[in-house]
Amino acid sequence: xxxxxxxxxxxxxxxxxxxxxxxxxxxxWWQRWTQWIQRxxxxxxxxxxxxxxxxxxxxxxxxxxxxxxxxxQDMSQAAPxxxxxxxxxxxWPVIQRHSQLLVAVVxxxxxxxxxxxxxxxxxxxxxxxxPVAGDAVLTHLSPAEQEWVRERIRRHVLKAIxxxxxxxxxxxxxxxxxxxxxxTVGQATQAHPRYVEFTVxxxxxxxxxxxxxxxxxxxxxxxxxxxxxxxxTQIHQPDSPLQQxxxxxxxxxxxxxxxxxLEGMDVTDREVAQRLGHLLLQRESILQPQRFSQANAxxxxxxxxxxxxxxxxxxxxxxxxxxxxxxxxxxxxxxxDALQESRLFQAACRGEVLKVSDLSAEPLTPCEQLLRDRxxxxxxxxxxxxxxxxxxxxxxxxxxxALGSDQIDGFDTLDESHAAALVSALTVAMRHTVQxxxxxxxxxxRWRFEEEAERRSLGMTPEPIVFQxxxxxxxxxxxxxxxxERNRAIQTDLMTQFTLAAAVVTAVSTEADNAYIHQFRxxxxxxxxxxxxxxxxxxxxxxxxxxxxxxxxxxxxFSQCGDGAVAAIAAYKAAQDSEQGCVYAARAVYDRTxxxxxxxxxxxxxxxxxxxxxxxxxxxDIEATDGIDHMxxxxxxxxxxxxxxxxxxxxxxxxxxxxxCARTAFRLKAEHSTKMDITHLVLVxxxxxxxxxxxNTERLFDVRGTRDTRYEIVKKRIDKALDSQTxxxxxxxxxxxxxxxTGEEWQExxxxxxxxxREGWVDEGIEQGTVEPxxxxxxxxxxxxxVLPAPELAGA
Length: 796
Description:
The protein is α+β, with helices and mostly antiparallel strands and about 800 residues long. The chain is about 40% helix and about 20% strand. It has 25 helices and 20 strands. The strands form 3 sheets. Strands 12, 13, 14, 15, 16, 17, 18, 19 and 20 form a 9-stranded mixed β-sheet that branches. Strand 6 and strand 7 form a beta hairpin. It is extended, with a radius of gyration of 38 Å. The two termini are about 50 Å apart.
């Protein structure tokens, strides 16, 4: 609180700590203000300060009661009436209401605010309060910032004490006395705090009483009268005698007259821009997703934006990166030729800051359509041009960062100025971030790719990127029944569309009844009956083409065959999806279900992956189709500190992660009311493999040599493997299946299963069997155990 000092605290009755109340020895602040104004008028009538002020008569200014701070006085009594408003210049109310300067008058007797300007109270959310703010303002500051404000006030009191003690004015440096202080001021109605730069100034502080202990401590600082240098030397020494004096200064140890002003300016935009630039220029921090997320949040705050995207264009390919505030960015690829008319692409090529005031007025390229669908109405674009010294100054990568607003004209010329100042820092930061994000190279192995890039930049012969003797950890969570579910969705949509087509032909036949239309209607009815029995693999394509060629192509003629036909055609078109060009309702539900399942499984695995990376640095790749599969490689060639203990820890953590994916699947099945089940399998291999980067393939790594080919074959076929005895799938819904080859592998994983049982992840029963020989692979065994629901689900 403002009134809190180092040795005491202002009580509700106006006393400080346990000491006596401090009687008022000064005139009210408004009298001093009147004297100042009159003095300014006498000295500066020629300044014509009222030339630009509203000259209309103003109503009399109402005074705000200032409570007395004496202990013996009634706190409810009003302060003496201020002078009539006629004694104030007519520009004074304008300054009070409209000045951007934040002004507060601080009472020296208790360090509370006894008057504040409208602008000051508006910033801290107290505009509905009277100008007498007391200590309410400081509740919006942190305890440390409250102490900083009090410390700035003590500086002015110290200057007055030194002046009174040694009868010299220039004993304190102005730079120290008026050192600005930046504080954060928050309101409940604001999403972010504001930054305010405060300066404390004073006028005619006169010390009328000083505690004897403080005066005695002051005399111990110097044996003779000090000069400015001697005083400032002790001020800058934390443990100096003068610092001890400064810490003892509080309203209980002195009485004084005079005025202290707390003056400030809102510097939020400047401070956010400076912090953003500082963050961008720290290479080691901006590479981290968390740090980039901070930078993105600062950019959106500075420019009042709701969305951010990155566009890059290299050779004939362009990419757009969206959802930058998420752990996984959304990446969309476009041919450069398709974006020639896009303002985003043009801005990237021109290398200039550009704003688009109304996106709806722009050409409808894939970029603009995408942004409009996301709710963006205006854009501010910051160019990026990452250059290579080996390319003789030509741009190696052209791109931009675009900020989107949901308002038309969401950005102004001041935003353009801020953007231009940030381009250099943003380009430096993105030069590093591109290597990390755009190339999709995992953190654990990026060092080797950077090492090879540096070798090639020096003209050295390329070397293969190989990680030898790494342990593979492979697992899969597969959506079983997804093909059958999709076929049912296709069947439902086709039956709906054929039924609507038959209704069109039936309506046409009432107006144009002939043999051909009658036979054609019977064809459609037979197709509906056939669809009720099921769909073939090619039905989705062939049947839709049949409708386009035999029904939709005749809509112009059919629409002339009466109102019934017109209504039937309208119903047919209304049922079609605008993007797919056909009835797609059931398939849309299926697509959303698969997407939700994949996203939930991926999020669960990634949460566990963060924990696994703390055990030992390792490579991990995740692929999502009908479910997700993960491929982990770990070993000393990736992490030199890797040990067998790390291997065992990672293997056990992998099993826990897959069990958690199974629990996620339980929840998803209930939420989506689907017949699809999810099975879970982990492939065990105790021998190492070598992985290499092949620049001619899309995959980051392939296994190397015939020794490791067996493992890749098993990976591709194991999810469909059968029990050699029962001919049933070795994977079953709600179960964790382990596939292994040797007794040593089973002995190790049997221990892990015992740990999982102890932790409540899996059931006690374990099923075992032999895997039906796969093409080129025999001798595999499996163990299967049921995963238990999470405790809260089991109780439900």
